[in-house]
Write a structure and sequence with these properties.
The protein has eleven helices and no strands. By secondary structure, it is an all-alpha fold. The radius of gyration is 21 Å and the shape is elongated. It starts with a helix and ends with a helix.
Length: about 290
């Protein structure tokens, strides 16, 4: 449940920041007439993400066991690739996010209502699709038949929306550089477990060999049905009897990805805390005043 909460929180906060930057810019520049198309694009993006999740869940139920495992394994690997790209992209470009979005919004305003809808849709839709895919793979990996993973993701998204609103109102200060570094590192660890589970799915689908080549088996020490076994599986997709290939893939992904992510870069140097959604490089007077927001 915690891993899905973290996914929902991280992805949802990114989307919330994007929405807050777009809305604040339109209010500040006196273009309240453009708010409706922007909200329309955001709503379409949310509905698309929900629809994508439903297609994954209900569409896969009509497949054979081998086809389900092949689909689940392939999408797990795809989800890991998308999340890894997202984590590194946000760490590298977050400081320039506000100016980048402002430039796109200026171009959309010049082109008309349709362009505004598309801009808002693309800005939020990517996070929505990534969240739906990653949560679906985590639900499959949990394999306990409960709604805990979905509840965790929902709570994470709700928390992200609340934080985004507090950022916009100027009621919350948070060091986003540190936040994205910590959550990004944790997501890399979680993604390593999802990747290993995806490889296991492909082995069960007979797409990849080595299903019976166990690296170790500590089921007696950490029973899968124990509370700590369940906790480790829910957070890290831990498996007490992984195959040699699973362990190999887990190490080959986790060690270099975590080392690269934690390596010093411009974003990691950070420059203090922020008040508002346009955190990277935003000056206090760039935000709309209380009167403008009312």
């Amino acid at each position: 449940m915690f891993s899905n909460f973290l996914i929902g929180l991280r992805e949802g906060l990114e989307a919330s920041l994007v929405v807050c930057i777009l809305i604040a810019y339109l209010v500040k520049t006196g273009r309240r007439d453009a708010l409706k198309p922007v909200w329309t694009g955001i709503a379409v993006a949310v509905l698309l993400a929900l629809g994508f999740g439903c297609v994954l869940e209900f569409g896969s139920q009509e497949l054979t066991f081998e086809a389900q495992e092949a689909l689940g394994g392939s999408l797990s690997i795809l989800a890991v690739g998308l999340v890894t790209w997202m984590v590194f992209w946000m760490r590298r470009t977050a400081r320039h996010l506000k100016s980048e979005l402002h430039g796109k919004l200026d171009a959309a305003l010049a082109m008309g209502t349709g362009a505004l809808v598309v801009t808002a849709f693309l800005a939020v839709g990517r996070e929505g699709l990534e969240t739906a895919l990653f949560v679906w793979t985590s639900v499959r990996a949990a394999g306990d038949g409960t709604a805990h993973p979905v509840i965790g993701a929902g709570l994470g998204l709700a928390t992200a929306v609340l934080l985004g609103w507090l950022f916009y109102r100027g009621a919350l200060r948070i060091d986003l550089a540190r936040f994205f570094t910590w959550t990004g590192g944790m997501l890399v660890v979680i993604a390593a477990g999802v990747l290993a589970y995806g490889v296991h799915d492909l082995q069960e689908a007979d797409w990849v060999p080595g299903l019976n080549d166990k690296a170790f088996d500590i089921s007696g020490t950490i029973p899968p049905d124990s509370w700590y076994g369940t906790l480790l599986k829910g957070v890290f997709n831990f498996q007490p009897d992984p195959t040699v290939l699973q362990v190999t893939v887990w190490l080959l992904y986790l060690v270099p990805a975590l080392a690269l992510f934690l390596a010093p870069v411009g974003f990691a140097s950070g420059k203090g805390k922020v008040k508002a959604p346009d955190d990277q490089g935003t000056q206090p007077d760039d935000r709309p005043s209380t009167a403008e927001r009312s």
